[in-house]
Amino acid sequence: MARTVGFFTDTTLCIGCKACEVACKEWNQLPGHAPQFGDGYDNTSQLDEQNWRHVQFHERTTAKGGVAWNMMSDVCKHCALASCMEVCPTNAIIRTEFDTVYIQPSVCNGCRDCIAACPYHVIGFDEASGLARKCTFCYDRLQANLTPACAKACPTESIKFGDLDTMREVAGARLNQLRGQGMSEARLYGDKEYGGLHALFLLTDKPEIYGLPPTESAVLPSRNNVRGYLGTLVTAALGVAGAVFAFRERGGKE
Amino acid sequence: MVEHFVTPPQWEWYIVWYFFLGGIAGGVYALGAILRLLGDDRDAPVARLAFLLSLPVLAVCPILLTLDLGRPLRFWHMMIDSRTFGLNFKYWSPMSVGVWVLLIFSVFAFVSFLEALASLRGSRAPFLAGGLGRVFVIVGAVFGLFLAGYTGILLSVSNQPIWSDTWALGALFLASGLSVAAATLSLVTRLGRHEQSAEAKLTRADRYFTILELVLLVVFFLSLGAVGSRFLAPRWMALWVVVLIGTLVPLALHFSTERRVPAMFAAVLTLVGGLALRIVVVFGAQM
Ligand code: SF4
Q1: Closest alpha carbon to B146 in B104, B111, B116, B182
Q2: Which domains does chain B have, with CATH numbers?
Q3: Contact, B120 vs B55, CB < 8 A?
Q4: What pairing do the DSSP bridges indicate for beta strands A124-126 and A131-133?
Q5: Could you read off the pLDDT of B233-267 as tens digits, one per residue?
Q6: Does residue A168 line the site of ligand 1, with CB under 6 A?
Q7: Residues of B numbered 124-153 whose beta carbons fall under 8 angstroms of chain A's beta carbons: which are they?
Q8: Is there a contact between A243 and B82 if contact means CB atoms under 8 Å apart?
Q9: What is the pTM of this model?
């Protein structure tokens, strides 16, 4: 049953319980890495081949001098214009009937071009299987008409799941509500970037704080093709001209 | 400047060596082609040597690339869609383009190698004589030049900081590839007993390539702007010094003497510098 799905992650509701991370690992049979302890409460540190959801903890000083946490459950954005899919040479990365971005494990050969392409540091290389891996949007659950594990487990409904259009409406309404309550720093991320993300976020700070490129930086790898080839072509012409010139001169020092 | 948050793809030594050897194989072929088309009889042995060198160096490349894959046995997925068994070709993905160029160039390198072998034994293979032969090596040289340069574009067509912040990497790798190729040829030529005039020609060509490379190094850093400061950490600085030694010293030697030993020394320095350039560009952006 084809449909266009989306996540809406409302960071103002996230309590940092990591139920999404656990549910994701349970369902997708991801053993995870050994915990890494830094100076915060984050022991997963990043999205990668084992962490398809990652709850970020950002401490910030409030206007009154107290400490507040900005927490956000990060995930693959299933970009409408996906950088990973753009460069993938094997066509292992496909768009599914749910309009999500999926790496076919039977096709991927582990070249890792997608890893260098994803601007959201989502994909990781799995040494054990030799494959690039990331969130599948619970492709198997979608096919069975089930809610993705993370959204199902989230106790505060910080992670919402539904049709993308509905998610956009919900996100817009929530933004208006928060703005109406005087939360001027609230903003939406994901409706403009990369043709529209399939994971929308309501943030209370600049996107960069959460490891999200600002809107004007949401550009695709292919932007560098034409100028890259042009520069190389000019160099080739100069190089050949140099060689022709050098080889034509009479032998020995003039 | 674009701001992205990218996981490094862990492209390491296999890739560095592929970039280096691909530059030599493609560059050497192109130089051989130009020598054959424009040189005189005394250059013929060096042109032949170029074709004899290109194929064995090239042959290492697909091995390195395959070993670098997480699933080496699926290397053919690069060319054939394992689902539909149709051909995979994405002109906007340099990795996809590069695979085909590597394959097509191999055919040219292989045929030219056979022909060079045959001519070594005194017979000039009929299929490469005359106009058709000239067209053949010209087309082969175009693919060779592509191979030497596209690797930089491959890095740039990503969202990896540094790589994707410049348009000059393909150009820089090509100039360096030509220089390294000329150095390889002149080194091997001088190891054997070849015509001095051809050696002098290679040295002169390498001067131009090195100057081109130096200009492009400046362009590269200018195009990076503030991002380039990441390269200024001590461990990368050391490699940049090697890159500079591998360009400036050979250049100075090329201009001052045509004697055999300094020329060979210059060639070795050029090779080391070319390798250092690829090491610092590949690793420097990922750490
Ligand atoms: S967030 Fe990254 S991995 Fe997910 S679809 Fe976009 S580019 Fe691909």
Answers
A1: B104
A2: 13-286 (1.20.1630.10)
A3: no
A4: antiparallel
A5: 888 999 999 999 999 999 998 888 777 788 889 99
A6: no
A7: 145, 149-150, 152-153
A8: no
A9: 0.94
